[in-house]
Amino acid sequence: MAEQTEQIDFVWSGTDKNKKKTGGIISAKTEIIAKTELRRQGYRVITFKKKPKPLFSAKVQAITPGDIAIFARQLATMLKAGVPLVQSFDIVGKGHDNASMEILLLGIKADIEAGDTLAEALNKRPLYFDELFCNLVAAGEQAGVLETLLDKIATYKEKTESMKKKIKKALTYPIAVIVVAFVVTTILLIFVVPVFADMFKSFGADLPAFTKMVVHMSEWMQAWWYIVVGVVVGIVYTFGYFKKRSRAFNHFLDKTLLKLPIVGLILNKSAVARFARTLATMSAAGVPLVEALESVAGACGNIIYTEAVLKMREEVATGQRLQFAMQQAGLWPHMVVQMVAIGEESGSMDSMLLKVADFFDEEVDNLVDNLSSLMEPIIMVILGTLVGGLVVAMYLPIFKMGAAVG
């Protein structure tokens, strides 16, 4: 990770061993290391300078998993077309809209030119290429089917990112409702209710109990609003702090989320889909089951499932069949266990698991759509109750006076 941030990109031009003009970009920690590497590769350097940063795109663009998926697909397409690996990196890297991605790919290209395999070059960049990605690339290079494996990686990444977006959508919706309701209520209590309260003082009449309660809430909010803000900021900070640093907290959080109605069902099904798709991809690449399960554990997206897969890996390593290890874990639906059993017996594990993954992907799609449909009326009810309640509380004294006059 540190190595990645320390590398500098240099633009150079010169001649190769055959006296032909050439040039490019090389990444290294220092100028001396870069020039030494170029000389080692047989190039005679004529011009050499640090790559300038563009004026209007100087902001560092984050490299997203979507960028990595697109890269895998593009590289697979290039290799299938018969383009050499180094040239493929040159084409894909220089044609990328994301400047950070261009630097990353041209850095990998430089490592490959220096003699590294693609898997070794990717392993140097764990921030962007996880263990699963590197293992599959290594398997593809060893078997001579790199383009096929890259195609599978791209499909896997695309499906996984699509699943993550669905989960975020499912979890963000109810949180957004709570935040909007809180903000709207706070604005009404601080800015709108005081206007009505001043008007009520001129009436000189006794206010209804509901109106008094709302006015008192407004007065308290105006006097102590910074406490409310401090508590909210404190809760958000504490949550983020423990989420990053405490395994016990993450274990409790993941376990609690799995038990929630609807949301828990979505998370359970998505974890099963990730497990099935990751194991199917590893199995299709010919990765041994015990080794594959280690990578699969980290791809489940939930600590409860991660721990279960690691325990299954230990049992499989002692000679137990995967289907029995899954049964003992007690997390996987009966249908999934049966599909794995059929796959083990018929030798078609990857195709069976892909069917499981597609089925549960569709289940998650339906659940997210249902949750969205269910949340719309709930939003209306919550906001209507809060805003409507405050409006009614403000108009009750006016209605009471109207009734008295009548």
From TrEMBL:
Keyword set includes Coiled coil: no
Pfam families reported in the protein's UniProt record: T2SSF
GO biological process: protein secretion by the type II secretion system
One GO CC annotation: plasma membrane
Limits of the Type II secretion system protein GspF domain: 71-194, 275-397
Record keywords: Cell inner membrane, Cell membrane, Membrane, Transmembrane, Transmembrane helix, Transport
Membrane topology according to the record: Multi-pass membrane protein
Gene3D superfamilies registered for this protein in UniProt: Type II secretion system (T2SS), domain F
InterPro entries, sorted: GspF/PilC, T2SS_GspF/T4SS_PilC_CS, T2SS_GspF_dom, T2SS_GspF_sf
Record flagged with keyword Transport: yes
Annotated compartments: Cell inner membrane
Residue ranges crossing the lipid bilayer per the database entry: 171-197, 223-242, 378-398
Highest taxon, organism lineage: Bacteria
Similarity annotation: Belongs to the GSP F family.
Name of the protein in its database record: Type II secretion system F domain protein
Organism: Methylobacter tundripaludum (strain ATCC BAA-1195 / DSM 17260 / SV96)
